[in-house]
Amino acid sequence: MNEKIQSNQHIQQEHPDYAQRARTWRRYRDIYAGGEQFRENAAEYLVRRLKEPPEVYQERLGRVFYENYVGSIVDWYAATLMREEPVIELTDGSGPSRDFFAQFIQNCDQRGTTLTQFFRQQLTEALVCGKAYVVVDFPRTSGEARTRAEEDAQGRSRAYLMGYTADEVINWSYDARGEMEWVVIRTSLLKQDGVKSLGWKKETRWIYYDRENYEIYEQGQQIELVERGRHGFAGIGRVPVFELRVGEGLWLTNKAATLQLEHFNKSNALGWALTMGLFAMPVIYSDREWSQVVGESYYIQLGPQDRFGWAEPDGKVYQIASENLNRLKDEIYRVSYLMQQAGDSGGSMQSGLSKQWDFSVTQEILSAYGDVVKDSMRNILNAVSAARQDELTVDVTGLDSFDITDFSTEAADAQSLLNLGIESPTLKKQIFKRVALKYLCDARQEVKDRIAEEIDSQ
């Protein structure tokens, strides 16, 4: 057994970075999700005023509401970036290898999830928590396969992906070259306690990977080792865990979270003040001692010099608060690189060129996210190819069309490049493939592969 896991206590240890950020990740998930999830934890975010009576604070908690800008921004980025499927090009490799990858792209997790859908989920996780993890696994079957054909027939070579969140990967180690040496993943789920039992119990599992082996522990009466063996990447000597990470400047929730919470507290304070303003307080102007009871079913008797009125705000503080809320909303969009959403957006129609200028910064950020996703896809697919010994190279392009320009513009640009008369058959083939595959982005992968092969054979 690896010396790093000689005791069960090791798998329960948490990396210092994990211990520092775990609470932050939980807070960011609430901010992103909003809705009832945020309301259930609202006491952690609604600031209690100095010496505020508990009854008043509890009433404010009962009336809490949340305007979720961050969640919409994150979902917009993920949806816009993955609006079209990436172009996956396979070079070399045999027919069975190409068939496997065509099926893998359509069902990468053995649950019917396409590769694009899977990475959209991972990108969303990375935008919320700064990073996400992908594990490549292979089915485990009894016996040994003597040939590659037997391995394929038994399904042992059918790689699939599993996604893990940032707070599920609790410990890890990298070598001097920045490559992962080992990692510990902790997951929890509710399971029915027995076949006929109506009760449920929480099951905790730890999965350990190093460059050759895996080990699985489960929490029973104590933590027990339930499975161990060599994983599918042992042949290439690497940990089958991949990290999809965005830089600090691209970590959207981290940039906007404090502004979103400030907006939440200010908007709830304004909402509470407006509600209280609807119940105006009576004011009696009198030099006499006042002892009468005032209410809906009572009347009051005033002397000749007495006066009666209502105490209510004049509205100036409401106007200031409303302006401050608008400024906070605009700042949330600004730090998220969506300046076109900040401020008053006029209702006038925009030309295509004007729209491009307005989205120029946003487009650069989307391109940066596209590079992160493409690099992650490329690394995983090529690692799967190496582990399967397919002798096949995978390249990933695309993720650069964000509905700012239409396909006619792309086709016109390609025609202009061809009209330059550059005598390069390779250039022409690459232009034809790029335009064709972008136009057919929603086609099945085997169709795209066949079109690419036909263009290359011309």
Q: Which structural class do the helices and strands define?
A: alpha+beta
Terminal CA distance: 55 Å
Provide a count of the helices: 15
Q: Biggest sheet: strands side by side, in what order? A: 4-5-6-7-8
Main sheet? 5 strands, antiparallel
What form results from the Cα inertia axes? flat
Query: H/E series, N to C?
Result: HHHHHEHHEHEEEEEEEHEEHHHEHHH
> Helicity range of the residues?
40-55%
Runs in which pLDDT lies below 50 for 5 or more consecutive residues are 1-6, 345-349
Radius of gyration: 30 Å
Percent of sequence in beta strands: 15-25%
Number of strands: 12
Give a short overview.
The chain is an alpha+beta fold. It has 15 helices and twelve strands. The protein is flat, with a radius of gyration of 30 Å.
Textual characterization of the structure:
- With 458 residues, this protein is an alpha+beta fold.
- The protein has a domain at 1-21 and 131-245.
- The protein is 45% helix and 18% strand.
- The protein has 15 helices and twelve strands.
- It has helices at 8-12, 16-33, 35-40, 54-62, 69-81, 95-106, 115-129, 148-154, 252-277, 316-335, 352-358, 360-388, 407-418, 425-439, 445-456; strands at residues 87-92, 131-137, 160-164, 169-174, 180-192, 200-209, 213-219, 223-230, 241-245, 281-285, 307-311, 392-397.
- The strands form four sheets. Strands 4-5-6-7-8 form a five-stranded antiparallel beta sheet.
- A hairpin with a 7-residue loop joins strand 5 and strand 6.
- Helix 13 runs antiparallel to helix 14 and helix 14 (425-439) runs antiparallel to helix 15 (445-456).
- The longest helix has 29 residues, at 360-388.
- The protein is flat and about 105 Å long.
- 24% of the residues are buried.
